[in-house]
Amino acid sequence: MIKKRLFTPGPTPIPESVMLRMAEPIIHHRNPEFREIFKRVSENLKYLFQTKQPVLTLTCSGTGGIESTFVSLFSPGDTIISVNGGKFGERWVKMPKVFDYNVFEIKNKWGTAPTENEILNALKQNPNAKGVYLTHSETSTGTATDIKLISKVIRENSNALVCVDGITAIGAHEFRFDDWGIDVCVTGSQKGLMIPPGLAFVCLSQRAISAMEKSTTPKFYFDLRKALKSFADDDTPFTPAITLIVGVDAALQIIKDEGIENIWHQHERKANAIRAGVTALGMKLFSNSPSFAVTPVWLPENVDWKKFNSTLKKTYGITVAGGQDEFTGKIFRISHLGYYDEFDMVTIIAALEMSLNEVGYSFTSGVGVQAVMNYFQNNK
Amino acid sequence: MIKKRLFTPGPTPIPESVMLRMAEPIIHHRNPEFREIFKRVSENLKYLFQTKQPVLTLTCSGTGGIESTFVSLFSPGDTIISVNGGKFGERWVKMPKVFDYNVFEIKNKWGTAPTENEILNALKQNPNAKGVYLTHSETSTGTATDIKLISKVIRENSNALVCVDGITAIGAHEFRFDDWGIDVCVTGSQKGLMIPPGLAFVCLSQRAISAMEKSTTPKFYFDLRKALKSFADDDTPFTPAITLIVGVDAALQIIKDEGIENIWHQHERKANAIRAGVTALGMKLFSNSPSFAVTPVWLPENVDWKKFNSTLKKTYGITVAGGQDEFTGKIFRISHLGYYDEFDMVTIIAALEMSLNEVGYSFTSGVGVQAVMNYFQNNK
Hints:
2 copies of one chain form a homodimer. The first copy, chain A, is of the alpha/beta class. Chain A folds into 2 domains: 5-10 and 260-378, Aspartate Aminotransferase, domain 1 (Alpha-Beta Complex), CATH 3.90.1150.10; 16-258, Aspartate Aminotransferase, domain 2 (3-Layer(aba) Sandwich), CATH 3.40.640.10. Chain A is 43% helix and 16% strand. Chain A contains 13 helices and 13 strands. Chain A has helices at residues 16-22, 32-49, 62-73, 87-98, 116-125, 147-157, 206-214, 224-231, 242-258, 260-280, 305-315, 342-358, 367-378, and strands at 5-7, 55-59, 79-84, 102-107, 131-135, 137-138, 143-144, 161-165, 184-188, 199-204, 294-298, 318-322, 331-335. In chain A, the strands form 3 sheets. The first copy, chain A, has a 7-stranded mixed β-sheet with strand order 2-10-9-8-5-3-4, with helices on both faces. Chain A has a 4-stranded mixed β-sheet with strand order 1-12-13-11, covered by helices on one side. In chain A, strands 6-7 form a two-stranded antiparallel ribbon. The first copy, chain A, is globular, with a radius of gyration of 21 Å.
């Protein structure tokens, strides 16, 4: 009777009511019933991104969503500035190269975010840059970029489109597409939106929409001009993942009822509580610009990752994310993105305590959980 | 208390047990629990395609699946022979042009299938053709191509890869990937597989896998080399649509328990019963090479499509598919693909009778339903 619990930054847990909505008999995507749902989803996605601009729904992973922006907005030979501070940033450097774009890479140490000066220097060296790709919350390092500030810097110093990978950030971090002058933002369904993977969402500014007309990169499925044209009729160019869209409808209703500002605030509180908990246990935080979606923690020196992870998983039913690349076995990551409340944060820290205890790490039992509870009680 | 029933060729109805499996708490795609499911799905997909070759799972629609084969197996300037006998064949002519391939189109009248001679002529005119794209069951026209015969013709007369759009055919029509010498076959999840849309499956021969090494077309998400590499580890290169894969697992188990030959036979019987039913009502079949997945029927002369369709939908809760392009309002299409039994065939013909009666078409009441029942009783 061990309950299985995911504390992973995608897939994230799905509200029970949303799971059951998706299990209802399937409807046809050309029926008026579906169009009504899709229209409401598109409207509520605008609320999620804080925009009046269209938010397009694609059937693919988040990576497919980002690819759609590369192939739809730019052309071979165009210069793209891409920030690489982790596994995903690295992908947004590799991907545009595949399409023969000229890529200027800003390489950040894992756990750090790009600075204003790094962006300014890159823009100076690439006055013709057509786009700057930023990762709002880098999943592999739990590191957040100050998108509001960096977007301002880009807009004031160039004509490059501000392109944001918001895959793990949307629904966790404050994000204002219109007010902050963002041109492109992509998110995925299995993150802050709390539904299974299979959908990507792409928000486009008018400048981005204009850029689509000039793009010569070959594309078909990921051609956002097709998606935008269908969008005007509350439709999609290809058969969409219908049940997942029904799930998004239910999830967005929860988000709307809660209020997006409240949701951002709750994520900040959950992140702070987890930081307080692990710090109280004597562990150190990995990132110097920590995300509100996922918290990476240095594994204590004498703790073996495999043993620790196996205890968490097998004895306690808990899945956290490990470190990637050179940080495999050195850090682990706790997600608090999406459908988690205060008691879930108590649970994960309690599970860490019990597992750490079993693998021989010494600390005063209960201090982690106490720190989480204290934080929540003192910070509403 | 009107039940809503889909008789559309994708999405098709989903077995209740499959819907409930997909509604279970989500699991992580890097967990051993998921890998076990994915491994079993991949094995059972081989059974579905009747092959020992890999069947790759992509998160996208069927169109995305076909695109992955175009961009992964060929290069700009390559010649592709593409059969266009309807909306989908038309798409497989347009798509390769986008990637700067040289396309030789075999244009078939809607409702007809390509002949041996048409294929032979095309091969003679294009001795360097790298691939021939065929639609096994063209959804827009309910027309089946004799893939076994045409594949033999291609293999005996050229080195072109035999590429099959099996999107509406797999699970309805006999299909033997290995025995018939097929190189590429794609299907989608929302068809004979009886799960919601969002997944495409791509089966590749060794010749197709070798062709991938030579392809220079830019690609990332649809790069089948990536999918094949991950496949070896029971993994996917990008976050897959986890819940849909869990659904495929359940659906493939049903198919395996039933036996693929039985499923093909049942589809043939359902198609024959529907043909008997509509013919008994005095209506005419549209296709001269009818599919076992979907049956297109000429609307009787004095019957208004909008009125008829609205009666079916609003009074009786039944959704059928209309005609497309120049056949809009002239034909309609009844799907019997996937999760339908004999009584569903009785139901759709009964609904046609009741709706036709209400829109003033005259026939002997009950003859359609009687023909369906007679067919089933006399043809086991």
